[in-house]
Write a structure and sequence with these properties.
The structure is a single chain. This protein has helices at residues 39-50, 62-86, 102-123, 140-151, 155-168, 171-178, 184-191, 193-202, 206-229, and strands at residues 8-12, 17-21, 24-25, 35-36, 96-97, 130-131. It is globular, with a radius of gyration of 20 Å. It is 58% helix and 8% strand. The chain is α+β, with helices and mostly antiparallel strands.
Length: 233
């Protein structure tokens, strides 16, 4: 899409902050007015549009994509999306230790168990762990506790936590980042213990490295979104 606008400004409606292009309110692909509750997030969206050259490149506009997703898709399909996110609790990465080699399994236990302990205390979600990749049934109270946490998220927070959970394979890691218990880069590292072990032994192919880099960027964008929705001024 060719750039046709010249000016990008942030406006204050009293109820939220919007972005205008050449004086016209920006709208999402579904036609919703693009308005958010914090000025820093609106400024971040505006800056993405200011930074565009002669051609609009959506892949360089992560905050704009998050906001549009929250306003268009999550607002329209929240029950399904919230259910999909809560379902990560049934197969959380941190609950499945490697069967072998033992050195990897021990590393996972050492690094993941503190997060599971944190989940029990902070989220009220006590997970059952096992060795191997076969599904492990989780207590109904654990699944209910995670669903309750998900239901407390607003649509923008849900968009961010969904990206964190999808990128790490763990709702525990996602909420640990959301609550500020760990940073997003630490969550990324913890989610890649198996991959790192394989890389240490066999090296990494370029395709896998590209996927890793892309997911690293996505997690960083999600964490940045959370920081922007929490700043009021």
């Amino acid at each position: 899409m060719k750039r046709t606008y010249k000016t990008v400004e942030v406006t204050d409606s009293g109820d939220g902050y919007g972005v205008v292009l050449d004086g016209k309110p920006m709208r999402t692909p579904a036609g919703n007015r693009l308005e958010v509750r914090t000025r820093p997030l609106a400024e971040a969206v505006a800056e993405e549009w200011r930074a565009q050259g002669g051609t609009i490149r959506p892949l360089t506009m992560p905050m704009t994509r998050f906001v549009a997703t929250a306003l268009d898709r999550i607002a329209a399909e929240r029950p399904r999306i919230a259910g999909d996110l809560a379902a990560f609790a049934a197969s959380d990465l941190l609950c499945h230790f490697a069967e072998r080699p033992e050195e990897l399994a021990e590393r996972q236990r050492r690094e993941w168990q503190p997060l599971l302990d944190w989940s029990a205390e902070a989220l009220g979600a006590c997970f059952v762990t096992a060795s191997g990749v076969m599904p492990t049934a989780q207590p109904a109270k654990t699944l209910a506790a995670i669903r309750a946490q998900v239901d407390e998220l607003d649509n923008l927070e849900l968009a961010a936590v969904q990206t964190l959970a999808q990128g790490t394979g763990s709702i525990v890691l996602a909420f640990a980042v959301f609550d500020g218990h760990i940073g997003w880069e630490e969550a990324h590292r913890l989610s890649r213990l198996d991959e790192d072990h394989q890389i240490e032994r066999w090296g990494e192919d370029p395709e896998a490295a590209a996927r890793r880099e892309g997911m690293h960027a996505d997690l960083g964008d999600a964490a940045r979104l959370l920081s922007l929705v929490r700043v009021r001024h």
